[in-house]
Every structure is written in C-alpha cells, then in structure tokens.
Amino acid sequence: MGARKRLVAEQRKEANKSIAFAKLNKSPIAPRKMRLVADLIRGVEVNKALNILQHNAKDASTSLAKLLRSAIANWEQKNEGKNIEEETLFVKSIEVSGGAMLKRIQPAPQGRAHRIRKRSNHVTIVVDGKNAE
C-alpha cells in the first residue's frame, strides 16, 4: 500500500470512530426496492423513522427497521456519557448500493434461454444526535 493511500485510510478510520453507523451486507432485496423505503426515512428523527418502517407494507422495511435499531444501539455504545433522552437522534445518511448478483437461467420457447438476475444490496445507516435545547 502506498503512503498516500495509507494516510487516507487512516483518516477515514479516525472519522468513522466518531460516528455511529450500521451496515447490512448481501440483503436479498433488489436495491431499487430498498431505496424506495430508504428515501422515506432519510433525515428523519429515529423514533418517527421506526414508526414509519413499522407501518410500511414493503418487505424491505423490516430489515431496515432492524438495521436502524442496530445503529441506535451503536450510538449508545459510543456515547456512554450522553443520555439518549436528552439527545435528538436522527438518520444522518442512508446509502443503498448494489451487491452481488445471482445469475440464473429461465427456459424459453424454441430451445432458447433467458437470463434472470437476482439482485442484492448493501445498506449503510449513519445516526447522529443533536441537543434538544
């Protein structure tokens, strides 16, 4: 690894120590479907976001709710001195990126075959708090 690359990696690690985040890798839901639900909770206060996810009919909302609870627990772990009731936690950012793709074959008429791509995704949620003053 080059010197510049190492310095940038160390800076990124230091920045990640101060924020609370949670990652979900290889979720078997298509990224396009996951982004529909992720857009609903971006920038929203966490209790309201959990309420939105609980009452959403889409399948992606259950995995996002579990991931959001994990991010909240990570925030509590990092900020032991701060009280969660005094802080207003909100979803600072949520990023959905494409994951690996399972490629399958669907039989088609006249001896042909069609390719089926079963998409997966990776989700990262960053939770931050602001004082309720």
Biggest pleated-sheet summary? 3 strands, antiparallel
Low-confidence stretches: none
The secondary structure category is alpha+beta
The span between the termini is: 46 Å
Number of domains: 1
Q: What's the SSE pattern?
A: HEHHHEE
Strand order of the largest sheet: 1-3-2
CATH top-level class: Alpha Beta
Look at the structure and give the mean pLDDT.
Answer: 93
Named at the architecture level, the CATH assignment is: Alpha-Beta Complex
Tell me the layout of helices and strands.
Blueprint: H1 3-18, E1 20-27, H2 31-41, H3 46-54, H4 60-78, E2 87-107, E3 113-131
Antiparallel strand pairs: 1-3, 2-3
Helix pairs in contact: 3-4
Protein architecture, described:
With 133 residues, this protein is an alpha+beta fold. It has helices at 3-18, 31-41, 46-54, 60-78; strands at residues 20-27, 87-107, 113-131. It has one domain: Ribosomal protein L22/L17 (Ribosomal Protein L22, Chain A, Alpha-Beta Complex), CATH 3.90.470.10. It is built from 4 helices and 3 strands, in the order αβαααββ. A 3-stranded antiparallel β-sheet has the order 1-3-2, sandwiched between helices. Helix 3 (46-54) runs antiparallel to helix 4.
